[in-house]
Specification:
The complex is a heterodimer of chains A (489) and B (128). Helices cover 35% and strands 10% of the residues of chain A. By secondary structure, chain A is α/β, with parallel strands linked by helices. Chain A has two domains: 253 residues, Aspartate Aminotransferase, domain 2, CATH 3.40.640; 125 residues, Aspartate Aminotransferase, domain 1 (Alpha-Beta Complex). Chain A is globular. Chain A starts with 55 loop residues before the first helix and ends in a 13-residue tail after the last helix. Chain B has 128 residues and is of the alpha+beta class. Chain B has one domain: RNA polymerase II/Efflux pump adaptor protein, barrel-sandwich hybrid domain (OB fold (Dihydrolipoamide Acetyltransferase, E2P), Beta Barrel). Chain B has a six-stranded antiparallel β-sheet. Chain B has a three-stranded antiparallel β-sheet with strand order 4-6-7, with no helix packed on it.
Chain lengths: 489, 128
């Protein structure tokens, strides 16, 4: 087997504070050419306690070593289920770094920012075409921010009708952030169980005129397309409720199915998932929201309008939920997503989803003889195994840690909660057959190791710079900052 | 897996110890085992009203965050003050040191809906 995980020259690194030696400097200043002024005594101090005193080369090595500890899609396969860790094409960066886009100030008057406004407007149009929604806002800065926006729009809609309603239905296969978004908007969450697929009957049984919305993830966190989605939407609409769709799994649907056609009223996109903008270290992301015509008046402002021959800001929108974010969203991220869509075109986007689904099903076919697949239904862009077939008392966490030794980032584990010891794999379309095969080989090898040498799995990772961390201790007693040791006399 | 005879149980894996009209509530050995290492516990304030079947607290483990549901309606009269600083006690002693809250029960008849140890044992076997 081709093992890409090696010990290599993995360097340890201290905290920058621990490099400090009194009087060491990493900079030189030009000679003073103005008269020296002195600050009043009460504004100065004798000692700068805890400021690291280091040379230039120490600073460079410190941060270079730390950067070598990073793992990202540019380093290797990153099959985190539900996260869509696809490769981010470098052409996105080229576009976003163009001076006219990178340096434009958000207060630039509309007359002088027509190009930037055109990109936002056209991105809205393209997302509208992809999803079927007639109105899109690109303001939300992340997926959960999009959920909040969507739920605020839903609440504003019901308030306008005279009753904000009390409850929001959420199936157990929804994304984990959905209940939090509903609660933030003042709703009580009613959890409904599903058996892989959500049944329209089950939804209808929970519907009454106090239900503001159903929040559904489609395809759901098991990677299953909700086959009763049309009937589910009808059941919600029958009692005057609205349907919110978490669009985080849109990577399975591009060019194949428009959520608005299914009866969905509101949906957010994750540009940092589906449209190849960086996940970064938790951001910046973008979570545009699409809504039906009926809900458009409630979208946050300002909105861009295309006048006869120019773009303008429409701020006269009395029913809008207000501003969601300063200026116009994470513009640099919007430029990257715009570039991605333009580079691929309609056919390319459809092919993206087809390949994402094919890759996930290829993994499913290769691993099913070795790992327990709790939901046998036809899955789309991701596949969820359980820990049941691991031998020797090994758990999901042991297999995940062992995968690091083989040079792979582990998949999402212990989510969704409906699967015991879930191993949730989403390869995305950007992996080659070879890299997927190497990953599957490693997974199969790990299943065998659990039988032949379970102690090895429980020790893993064994090839890394640091061995298995005590995650419980880190969470219970986190050390969040450096504290200077007391000086010894 | 330990299932003490003297306790009553819910389908959400809470245990209940009944002493007159005060019940002590915690999560079962099965629950702590499934959650794994518990790293954070959130409890209601003393005096808070809790409703049967509604969440009254939160336990967070390295795997997941879970609500803890009130097995019965009533008023919180005491909470385990040690837990926020030592959540691991729920893992090491779920039925004793890991107790979470004491609730003054509104209607003792509600206790009839809970399972006894045998029924809970059976429930666990059917669930797996």
């Amino acid at each position: 087997m081709n093992e890409i995980g090696t010990r290599g020259l993995a360097l340890n690194e201290k905290l920058i504070f621990e490099h400090s030696r009194t009087g060491r400097r990493g900079f030189s200043l030009p000679e003073l050419d103005v008269p020296e002024a002195s600050l009043p005594g009460e504004l100065t101090r004798d000692e700068m306690d805890g400021l690291p005193e280091v040379s230039e080369v120490e600073v460079v090595r410190h941060f270079t070593r730390l950067s070598s500890w990073n793992y990202g899609v540019d380093s290797g396969f990153y099959p985190l289920g539900s996260c869509t860790m696809k490769y981010n094409p470098k052409v996105n960066e080229t576009a976003a770094q163009k001076a006219g886009l990178a340096l434009i100030h958000p207060y630039t008057p509309a007359a002088l920012s027509q190009g930037a406004m055109e990109i936002i407007y056209k991105l809205e149009q393209m997302l509208g075409e992809i999803s079927g929604f007639p109105a899109i806002t690109v303001h939300p800065a992340a997926g959960a921010h999009g959920e909040l926006t969507g739920m605020m729009v839903i609440r504003a809609f019901h308030e306008k009708q005279g009753n904000p309603r009390r409850k929001v239905l959420i199936p157990d296969t929804a994304h984990g952030t959905n209940p939090a978004s509903a609660v933030l908007c003042g709703y009580e969450v009613v959890s409904i169980s599903s058996d892989g697929y959500l049944a329209a009957e089950e939804v209808a049984a929970h519907m009454d005129d106090e239900v503001a919305a159903l929040m559904i993830t489609n395809p759901n966190t098991l990677g299953l397309f909700e086959k009763e989605i049309v009937e589910i939407c009808a059941a919600v609409h029958a009692k005057g409720g609205l349907v919110y769709c978490d669009g985080a799994n849109m990577n399975a649907l591009l060019g194949v199915c428009k959520p608005a056609d299914l009866g969905i009223d509101v949906m957010h996109f994750n540009l940092h998932k589906t449209f190849s903008t960086p996940h970064g270290g938790g951001g910046p992301g973008a979570g545009p929201v699409g809504v039906t015509k009926e809900l458009e008046p409630f979208l946050p402002h300002p909105r861009i309008q295309l006048k006869k021959d120019h773009y303008a800001w429409d701020v006269n929108r009395p029913d809008a939920i207000g501003r969601l974010r300063a200026f116009h969203g994470n513009f640099g991220i919007l430029v990257r997503a715009y570039t991605y869509i333009r580079m691929l075109g309609a056919d390319g986007l459809r092919r993206t989803s087809e390949m994402a689904v094919l890759n996930a099903n290829y993994i499913r076919a290769r691993l099913e003889p070795h790992y327990h697949l709790p939901y046998k239904q036809r899955s789309l862009h991701e596949v969820v195994f359980s820990e049941q077939n691991l031998k020797g008392g090994c758990h999901t966490m042991d297999a995940a840690k062992r995968l690091i030794d083989y040079g792979f980032h582990p998949p999402t584990v212990y989510f969704p909660l409906v699967v015991k010891g879930a191993i949730m794999i989403e390869p995305t379309e950007t992996e080659t057959r070879e890299s997927i095969d190497e990953f599957c080989d490693a997974m199969i090898q790990i299943a065998k190791e659990s039988e032949e040498n379970p102690a090895l799995l429980k020790m893993a990772p064994v090839k890394t710079r640091t061995r298995r961390m005590d995650e419980a201790l880190a969470a219970r007693k986190p050390k969040l900052r450096w504290v200077k040791e007391e000086k010894k006399n | 897996m330990e299932i003490p005879e003297e306790l009553k149980f819910t389908e959400d894996h809470e245990w209940v110890l009944v002493e007159d009209d005060i019940v002590t509530v915690g999560i079962t050995d099965f629950a702590q085992e499934s959650l794994g290492d518990i790293v954070f516990v959130e409890l209601p304030n003393v005096g808070a009203k809790v409703d049967a079947g509604k969440a009254f607290g939160v336990v967070e483990s390295v795997k997941a965050v879970s609500d803890v549901y009130a097995p019965i309606s009533g008023q919180v009269v005491e909470i385990n003050e040690e837990l926020p600083d030592a959540p691991e006690v729920i893992n090491t002693s779920p039925y004793e040191d890991g107790w979470m809250v004491k609730i003054k029960v509104e209607d003792l008849a509600d206790l009839d809906d809970l399972m006894d140890a045998n029924a809970y044992q059976e429930f666990l076997e059917n669930e797996d």
